[in-house]
Write a structure and sequence with these properties.
By secondary structure, the protein is an alpha+beta fold. It has five helices and four strands. A four-stranded antiparallel beta sheet has the order 1-2-4-3, covered by helices on one side. The two termini are 31 Å apart.
């Protein structure tokens, strides 16, 4: 009973009416849709939904779009919208890449705090690409000066977030 109440208070109360931007599709239907769209069109769609529905939800739920509130939003999506298992942690050069991106150059300079977001799922590489685009775009459009990149595989999407130390949009 506590879990049902927790789910309602965290998520359902914001999406149960007809004004909600959220709908439920069979994953196969959604995957077929994103498989049929090339990367350029998918990026354009992602940019519009990141700026509109996600930011609107975050503002409605927590009143302000910050790094912390974007993370809270992603945790809700992970828990209740089945996007995959969400995990975030500091990078600081200790998470397998020693602070370097995939092409070997220094991914971040001393002006950024580094985070790695990992989302594990069973929906294939195109879903990982969609998540990488979506989450990267959400951070970069909502927070001034933030930098992101991502890696997509068949079961995991890694998003690397560089948050400026002097950002007032953390909490």
């Amino acid at each position: 009973m506590n879990e049902i109440l927790k789910q309602y208070l965290s998520w359902a109360q914001f999406i149960v009416n007809h004004e909600s931007p959220f709908i439920t599709f069979d994953s196969g239907t959604f995957l077929a849709l994103i498989e049929s769209i090339d990367d350029e069109k998918l990026q354009k769609i992602v940019e519009s939904i990141s700026n509109e529905s996600a930011v609107d939800f975050i503002k409605f739920r927590w009143k302000k779009v910050t790094f912390h509130n974007i993370v809270r939003y992603l945790e809700l999506l992970s828990s209740y919208a089945n996007i995959g298992n969400f995990n975030i942690g500091p990078m600081n050069g200790n998470n397998g890449q020693n602070g370097e991106n995939v092409n070997g150059s220094n991914a971040f300079d001393g002006d950024y705090e580094k985070f790695e977001i990992a989302i594990r799922h069973h929906l294939g590489k195109r879903w990982s690409t969609f998540l990488g685009m979506y989450i990267s775009c959400l951070f970069t459009t909502a927070i001034t000066g933030i930098k992101t990149n991502y890696e997509a595989s068949t079961k995991t999407c890694f998003i690397y977030v560089n948050l400026p130390f002097k950002s007032k949009e953390i909490f």
